[in-house]
Amino acid sequence: MLHLAEQDPAAGGRSPVRGRKGPRRALLGLLGPAFVAAIAYVDPGNVAANLTAGAQFGYLLVWVLVVANVVAVLVQYQSAKLGIVTGRSLPELLGERLRPGWRRAFWVQAEIVAAATDLAEVVGGAVALYLLFGLPLPLGAVVVGGISMALLAMQSRNRQRPFELVIMGLLAIITVGFLAGLFISPPDPSGVLSGLIPGFRGPDTVLLAASMLGATVMPHAIYVHSALSRDRHRPDRHRHVPQHAVERLVRATRWDVIAALAVAGIVNIGMLLLAASTLGGVEGTDSIEGAHAAISASLGPVVGVVFAVGLLASGLASTSVGCYAGGTIMEGLLKIRIPLMLRRLLTLVPAVVLLAVGFDPTWALVLSQVVLSFGIPFVLVPLVVLTSSTPLMGGFVDRLPLRIASVVSVLLVMALNLALLWFTFTGAAGR
Predict the structure, then answer these.
(1) In this predicted model, what pLDDT tens digit does every residue of 284-296 receive, in sequence order?
(2) Please, how many CA atoms are within 13 Å of residue 371, restricted to the half-sphere of its CB?
(3) Which residues have C-beta within 8 Å of that of residue 211, sequence separation ≥ 6?
(4) How far is Cα 132 from Cα 128, in angstroms, rounded to an integer?
(5) Of 362, 171, 199, which is closest to residue 268 (Cα–Cα)?
(6) What is the CA radius of gyration of the chain?
(7) Assuming Cys at both sites, which of 27, 98, 178, 410 could form a disulfide with 102, CB separation 3.0 to 4.6 Å?
(8) pLDDT tens across 332-385, in order?
(9) 30-425: CATH number
(10) Is 195 helix (H, G, I), strand (E, B) or coil?
């Protein structure tokens, strides 16, 4: 019998809960998977969406980020709990339940979402290299892809902990890079409070809200978190696990998710507040390059460099996690496993081509996040159904309050997407 609370593969088989370690160190030893998943919530797509929202509409859409982060905490906890309790990832469980035709169709939409994610992350990293070193964007995309390969080489089921620590280090750099400017140009408190009141100001704000939602509640992060938790805590998923051990892991996972998403939420809101306090009314801030130039001019070149370093760390970390998520989706749904390095090469091509033909990188980032927002219901609905299944989850099935919150979240996302479709296809968006 495997007592997971007493045996952790990341700790070389030693207990992270008992033995010589105290309870606090034991808890810290169980943290990590949520911080890897949280990288998806501070990727370059977030930067483009949040800076655009803050620069164009001030504090108006702060409430969108608050709501999106609450939804993110909810769904990431459900995904991680699913992986721990069942010993299988969300794509695996869907692959077991869907008929072959539906399974392949579901994989296609999930791959489109993963491709949009990877596009945003590589493009963002390339823009950061251009800002820091003047590298041409296509070359920067190749460099980002090469570094992400090195990070992916570290990721395996036997070496997940070092990968988690590297990603957590990059998250620290991202946090400093994107929040440093707030200490020089703090936001207006009354403006922040007014931004907490839900509301829109025309169809353009609906488009931005959908982009911000797609950038904050990331479908591929929901898929991959179940696999990260499974691989970290249930490496031998076929062996029996006592309920008390699973309970301990689920409690630790709850704190893991809250801590990781709190950091990601603060960074996202901080980006919007920085744009609102610094970039409002400044010409040319509708691109990351323009926003960086305005930040450097307003707050000094040092802050500009720190911001660009944060953007680079965001691109490098998120593209590695995104590529790993794509592999998890394919393996779970199609039972096909290709080397991550090969997948990295294949998914790098669209971003390089897009940048080579001169497509606006910031607009590519914003549109990629809109694509992600349409993929959210496809992952949220199955997640809610599975975590509400007593035969599957046993005593860890979602309780009624959590089910209600999950259904409300799904309906909110679908309503926002329907509004976006209406504005887009009636020609109202962008007027």
Answers:
(1) 666 788 888 888 8
(2) 20
(3) 45, 49, 52, 366, 369, 370, 373
(4) 6
(5) 171
(6) 21
(7) 98
(8) 999 888 887 788 888 888 888 888 888 888 777 767 767 777 788 899 899 999
(9) 1.20.1740.10
(10) helix
